[in-house]
Sequence to fold (710 residues):
Amino acid sequence: MTLPLSPDATTGPAVAEQPFDENLWLEDIHGSDAMAWVREHNARTDAALVNPAYTALEAAVLEVLDSKDRIAMVSKHGDWYYNFWRDEANPRGLWRRTDWDSYVSGSPAWQLILDVDALAAAEGTEWLWAGASLLRPPAGEEYRLAMVALSPDGGDAVTYREFDLAARAFVPGGFELPTAKTRLSWVDADTLYVGTDTGTGSMTASSYPAASRVLHRGESLAELAAKQPLFSVPPDHLSGGVSHDSTPGFERDVAYDVLDFFRSRSYLRTGDDWVHLDVPDDMNVSLHKEWLLLRPRTDWAVAGSVHAAGALLAIELDAFLAGGRDVRTVFAPTPAQSLQSWSWTRDYLLLNLLEDVSSKILVLDPAREWAASGLDACPPLHSVDAYAVDDEDPAAGNDYWLVATGFLTPSTVYRGQLPTGGPAAVVRQAPSFFNEAGYAVEQHFAVSRDGTRIPYFQVGPKDLVLDGGNPTLLGGYGGFEVSRTPSYSGAVGRSWLERRAVVDGVERGGVYVVANIRGGGEYGPGWHTAALQENRHRAYEDFAAVARDLAARGVARPKHLGCAGGSNGGLLVGNMLTHYPELFGAISCGVPLLDMRRYTKLSAGASWIAEYGDPDVPAQWEFIKTFSPYHLLQAGLAYPPLFIWTATSDDRVGPVQARKMAARMESLGLPVWFHEALEGGHAGAGNNAQAARLHTASHEFLWRALTGGF
Fold:
């Protein structure tokens, strides 16, 4: 099936004028001149930051990341529990597995499946692990085949290679797909549905697959490219593809047309036809066995009822396909709540909620008219997630994992069984990496410009002196309905909370703050849509309100307050630099969007138009330019020092916006430090050592700037 072009795919309004850009040459990502500029700036930043104290701090952070006592998280497939593990001896990582008795013993006997370091050395390619897709075996058999994804540089583009789990080796002459932003799904042992780069027209403007084709064993990429697509979407949509649901008794093909980040259409294959699941495009659609679950992003009026945005609705799929619209609300959020995720065990549905940004878990029983009960496992100001272990295991189909964490609570993994037969049992507990007992977690609310109450978490010493002199790090995100929740970080504990400095004549430790601003998902889809496109300023006003509240409460005056954010959070703190420079003493900005005039032309930027708007449309550029930091910089203004970090191999946001921002700031005589990792993708790090370096560089820069060290 090929969908028609959108009405505006070939025609549209006049294109907005391009502002002058003296740094376009830095958009040549791997160009010799651009890379020489990168190396020069990396050396300059290292010279400014690296000293014996920095080296010791980096080692302390790396010790946390490499710790052999941290939790080895597992996923169950058949009788095996799989884990991917990195440490000092295995920086690229080991894919391994064990059985249950061994896993709970405390000292698992791991069976090695794939050593990525050894593979990289043998093949001369700096492979990084990007996951694996396992083929569901026939009933009674063990999992045997997997498509392993490997990135040559940490970017989103990966190579897929078929792997034999029993032989623990790649399949000779098996399925193999070259490096691209591929999407695939197993159909059977000899067939895949594949969306990948096969040349002109195969990828969308957002750099994701536009078509899905059937690949049979033994066929080449050229043979795949010559086939008619099984399903395709117009190039101005975000992506499209087909997945095969192999659930026994419910086998089916599902096609998806992702219009943008928040709108999509789902289709079921019936013979040679695709049947559209007729719901609004902004509906989250989920199929599980006989059930169709729906989560509207806006209020949905159907069959005489109005279903609220953020609710969860259920109807039997066959009834829906027959025209029935008697959907049932199985969860309706209060104003303080939001549904974050859900997971099916064999007989129950687990809902993970937030209530004023603290976790709450509900268990729904569809066999009892969706009766709901709470799972008593969520202390205040903590994050707890519940999800199924293996809903098809005959003996453990109602087992669930419970993962609990907090800012001062090392993560713990539990395993329980529904219906609840007592507390879930502790399976694994992460070690402590700093003196958590000396600190306290508080939740406060700031009032934004339009009167909205904005929650934020504050982690600081129990004896915190509220005189404005505490070095404080404020973090946030505020986009794409992503929620910022409490989580333990031994690295933050060591590199920020436990650090000491004499500030304003008093020896102090650090304070760590997380703001839950609009644009995120902490209060459901409405919290997100409140800061979309022309309302983007609300996210920035919220963050500024938290900064002012920290000053008003005596936590940190501006010269002792720093902020940090990455990706969309990099855009957030870039706007703190240009709109609210008086509120901060230093800013750390990672893998950022900053040039909002050209962001749609760079890497995967076109996929975010629904979030920010289209700068090529003059009316939309009028509001976008109000939050484009690259265009808001002005000579002669006082800005706090800025540290920008990025990665050459980031094929999602890309490194060029960070480069250009640093170059323009330098030309204006503004204080800026720049570092570009040469691999690691959007995370900026392909292994623990690189992650420790970036974490330490960001925190060291902020700490020195806020405590008078520069």
